[in-house]
């Protein structure tokens, strides 16, 4: 069996709210590597949805965006440089990306945002639900499912 070249993750460039704005409407908004603010009304942070791969140590990772309330966003920013931030209580968020490749209907799925040590993106845990992504995060996926997602990702790039 050959696994060379098999991608173990996917990265969303920006939250859907950002992508839907024209360049003109993006005035007063900002998109960085870790945070995004849209019109000072919508606040996003980048995080990782880790899906265990059965019989493997390395998970499949969705590097995506989550929305946070203004209060939670400000608290997270205030605590961002703190060396003990991984011990902070989790924040509630909503998935801000549509992962139509492999999973449909992910936009606004409820999740928990857990900060990790400085230098690491927050971990995102989907709330228990019947959505396939939440089920896969709880139960894990096979290496064949990883191959299927890879195939879908490659064919979606046109």
Tell me what the structure shows.
The structure is a single chain. The protein is of the alpha+beta class and 158 residues long. It has one domain (9-156). The chain is 23% helix and 27% strand. It has helices spanning 16-19, 70-79, 132-139, 143-156; strands spanning 9-11, 30-31, 35-38, 42-51, 60-68, 91-95, 110-114, 123-126. Strands 1, 2, 3, 4, 5, 6, 7 and 8 form an 8-stranded mixed sheet that branches. The longest helix has 14 residues, at 143-156. It is globular, with a radius of gyration of 16 Å.
> pLDDT average, as an integer?
92
| Number of DSSP helical runs | 4
- Briefly note the structural class of the backbone: alpha+beta
Question: In this structure, how is the largest beta sheet organized?
Answer: 8 strands, mixed
Number of domains: 1
Order of helices and strands: EHEEEEHEEEHH
Distance between the termini: 28 Å
Element layout with pairings:
Blueprint: E1 9-11, H1 16-19, E2 30-31, E3 35-38, E4 42-51, E5 60-68, H2 70-79, E6 91-95, E7 110-114, E8 123-126, H3 132-139, H4 143-156
Provide tags for this entry.
158 residues; alpha+beta; 8-stranded mixed beta sheet; 4 helices; globular
Please outline what is shown here.
This protein is α+β, with helices and mostly antiparallel strands and 158 residues long. The chain has helices spanning 16-19, 70-79, 132-139, 143-156; strands at 9-11, 30-31, 35-38, 42-51, 60-68, 91-95, 110-114, 123-126.
